[in-house]
From TrEMBL, chain A:
GO terms for cellular component: plasma membrane. It holds the Pfam family BPD_transp_1. This is Sugar ABC transporter permease. The chain crosses the membrane at residues 42-64, 100-124, 136-158, 170-192, 280-299. Belongs to the binding-protein-dependent transport system permease family. Residues 101-299 form the ABC transmembrane type-1 domain. The lineage of its organism: Bacteria, Bacillati, Actinomycetota, Actinomycetes, Kitasatosporales. GO terms for biological process: transmembrane transport. It comes from Wenjunlia tyrosinilytica. It is found in: Cell membrane.
Automatic annotation (TrEMBL), chain B:
The keyword Cell membrane does not apply. One of its GO terms (cellular component) is cell envelope. This is Carbohydrate ABC transporter, N-acetylglucosamine/diacetylchitobiose-binding protein. Belongs to the bacterial solute-binding protein 1 family. The keyword Hydrolase does not apply. It is found in: Cell envelope. Keywords: Signal, Transport. Residues 1-32 form the signal peptide. InterPro entries: Bact_solute-bd_prot1, Chitin_NgcE, SBP, TAT_signal.
Automatic annotation (TrEMBL), chain C:
One of its GO terms (cellular component) is plasma membrane. The chain crosses the membrane at residues 7-29, 71-94, 114-135, 167-187, 229-252, 278-300. The lineage of its organism: Bacteria, Bacillati, Actinomycetota, Actinomycetes, Kitasatosporales. Its main location: membrane. Pfam families: BPD_transp_1 (PF00528). This is Sugar ABC transporter permease. One of its GO terms (biological process) is transmembrane transport. Keywords: Cell membrane, Membrane, Transmembrane, Transmembrane helix, Transport. It comes from Wenjunlia tyrosinilytica.
Amino acid sequence: MTTPIKEPTPVPVGKVSTPVGARPRKPRKEERFAEGGGVLNAFSHGFLILWALMIVFPLLWVVLSSFKTDKQIGGSAWSWPSHWSFDAFSRAWDKGIGDFFVNTLVVLCGSVTLTMLFGSMAAYVLARYEFPGNRALYYIFVAGAMFPVYLALVPLFFMVNRMGLLNSYIGLILVYVAYSLPFTVFFLHSFFRTLPTAVHEAAVIDGCSHTRAFFQVMVPMAKPGLISVGIFNVLGQWNQYILPVTLMQQQKSGDPDRSMLAQGLVNLALQQGYSGDSPALFAGMTVAMVPVLVVYLSFQRQVQSGLTAGTLK
Amino acid sequence: MGSDFNRRDLIKRAVAVGLVAAPAAGFLSACASGGGDNESSAKGKKTKDNPFAVANGAGLDVVIFKGGYGDDYARAFEKLYEKKYKGKTSHLGTQDITGKLQPRFNTGSPPDVIDDSGAKQIKLDVLHKNGQLADLTPLLDAPYIDDPSKKVRDVLQPGTIETGSFDGKMYSLSYVYTVWGLWYSGKLFKDKGYTPPKTWSDFMALCKEIKKDGTAPFCHQGKYPYYINILVMDLIAKTGGLEYVKRIDSLDPTVWGEGAAKSSIEAVYELVDKGYLLPGTNGMTHIESQTAWNEYKAAFIPSGSWLENEQLKSTPQDFDMKFLPVPTLDGAKLPFEAIRAGAGEPFIVPEKAKNKAGGLEFLRIMLSKEASGKFAQAANSLTVLKDGVGSDVKLRPGTQSTVEVLKAAGTNTFNYNYPNTASEFDTAVQNASGELMAKRIKPAEWLKRVKAAAEKAKKG
Amino acid sequence: MRHRKYPFIAGFLFVPVVLYAVFVIWPYIQTFGYSLTDWSGQSQTMNFVGFDNYSKLFSDSVFKKALVHNMLILVFLPVITILLALFFAFMLNVGGRGRAGAVQGVRGAGIYKIVFFFPQVLSIAILTVLFQAVYRSDEGGLFNGVLVKLGLEDKQHPIEWLNSPDLVLWCIIGVLIWAGVGFYLVLFSAAMQSIPKEIYEAALLDGARRGQTFFRVTLPLLWDSVQTAWVYLAIAAMDVFALVATLTPGAYYGGGPDFHSEVMATYLMRNFLTYGKSGYACAMGVVILLLTLILSAITLRITRRERIEF
């Protein structure tokens, strides 16, 4: 809340936007003060709306395409669906979109949790304890964030195969965790450094073990940072494609299909290249898109507040 | 030896949508452990009707690449097998052969029959090197189901055995017989009174007329220059003759300084120069351009004979799809009827299959008139079985026209092998053709580039 | 607090380090090993060739082209994305009608923040199919369709976006920006909200224009977030594999027309899987790795600044 200083008109200030009796939409004299405010406002609205349209429009197009016919999709992108039926959706569902979704959820639940647990443990130790090799270890972790994943695919496949973990949730979870560690350690490391040391010291003096001090004192203090890095990880692992396509393939005819969502969608797209079912592909994409949007809508406050914490310090 | 057909799959499918193939097929099976001993199922009695001695009631494990031809046809074949041997078949249709089967080869428990095709095909030479492939010679010498007086080897299209052979022995049965060339709509031509051209000058004259009528004479799948190379390389082959094709395959750089290559590429460039291309075609995917062609926006399009099946849903009922061999230039060494044709879609029987006899028998069943006709109907493509489509089978117009064209061609068929053996060279030729079609380079530059690429590839 | 420190450290580090070593470090080391061989990728037989692959790499013109493209993306992607995101974030938080000198965001700021973030949750498969349609090379495309309808372009000569040597790389960068801005907008916006409003208002009272407040107040206080964004985007710029491989023309992993959109990752993949030059591809990978490391070090050094506490 601020106080108007040189302001002649008695208008309520701050976030309360219900001026008594006055019509709020009209430009007002105080605009002169914050010079250019009105112009800026129109200008910014213009740009924001334009960008928003650029995002909403293509997504709507995806949704509309799931109601079109193959021929319409192959033809102009500007056609309007001629009949409205949900056939394509049930076909997409038959092709396993639902299963892919569940697979992805199962893996992400495990992998994000473990990533956060192990990542924060490593980051914490590296950030707060002196020991020989600390710096070296930190840099080795961080360097991993710079490596292109596809370089390691072949040896990685052999490794997972030798462990007998191909097409298993556990295998993919462990690999996801390993490949998410660099980022996680990198950001949490800087975050743990900024936390005040006094609280932790007090806890230790009170006889808290290092482990308890971590879980009961440091983790709660680091919550904003953890949330933010967790969000990064959810997004990163959600969109992961190359790892599951290498590691999550049925090994026997009877093996369950444990495709991740991105993988499943690409397979649908592959079929579409073979005179398959384009509407079903778009329906699948819609099905894949909507729940994520819903989740984001419900958690966007946490996402946004969590993000502040995740910057380099 | 992969087939050209698979190569083309690789090109467009993997790239079109598959973001990346799983780690290279080959080296995985290279480590094939050979694994557990597989007790083969009990032997049946060897009879004239059952040359491989398949045990009654023996199950059959079939894995089919579910690509352009779907996998319904295979289910029909499995029914034929079940009827004969009362064994249960298990069926898996997939786009990802490598992903599904690599580990099974590694552990020594492969299925009994595999359609090893598509972008994620397991390389046949690797499987062969590791002793994973059953020798198909017994199949070739087995009696042909529809006429037991003949052997299977006598009823295959020319080139089929060679395509599937390593060191003189056949290890894979390439089942689909593909022809490459130009395609047009019979309806469009009838409505407008166009005559399918036989010579290049007739072709150009017709293009001029078509353009005047407001249709684009020619379109191609520009995002994948593989397709325009059908026209380019067919024209070169027909102008230069079979010997010329061999020299191209052997990466002889001097061919690119000679007349046949020069006149052919200049002829193709004429299409560009005279504005005969469909606007935007140079940037289109196969689906986009082929659908535009189905909408009569363009008259000709180059492709292989999978086209009809691929466009099934977008083709108007009365479109009347027709195949046209590439028209010939003056002084061409091969006649107009000559076409590029070859066997593709390799089927294999693993050496360590539990029911190896059943696998061989399955292939023999595939090479019967009944199965071949079913395939032609379900997948709108021909098989390598000579005269494999009975008169009772009603084909779609495009497939029907390839039957006629093949008859007319007789022994005048040719095929290129360089896409399988020199992929870097192939890529260079494709790039050059893409640039030519976009009018960014001239024929002279095209020849120079291709020649340089051949020299480079030759050096290795 | 010295007691039992080392067991604790070891206990906490054990699992993460083992996971990391087994699944990440060891495969990369093996990759380096392969880069010294003529491995074809088809079998486990190979010969040691020393640094041959590396010396060949330096005379490979396509690789150099790819390198340049990566560098272009590396410069333009972060700059444009961050500027746009900052601009939008500033609009959302400060662009509103100032009432009585109070600084506030535009109306509907919350909705914008949600909408702009959408692309971030889309799978790469969706992006590919979507932008294939957007950039389609005839009037059926979303872009060309609009241009033709507006009369800005001749139907007979549509812009072949992805098949144009001058445009194709920008088309790819465009997709990355489209997908990325929302995320960084939310990131910056959150950071801006943690800046006390009084700072702005004081600045405004001191006679600063709004534009000036951005450069004098907002930007310095957001520096941490900008730096974070930069690192993220730089890493994204080194790996644009999926988009290039699927959207651009050309045989085997795109990169066309005629290598005009080739990036190191696609060229590596083509060598690895198509040409059967896996050892060579591994050498390429090692070079990419080194470059990325050097670049990150430089980025961090340059952007390091004194932090402003508030």
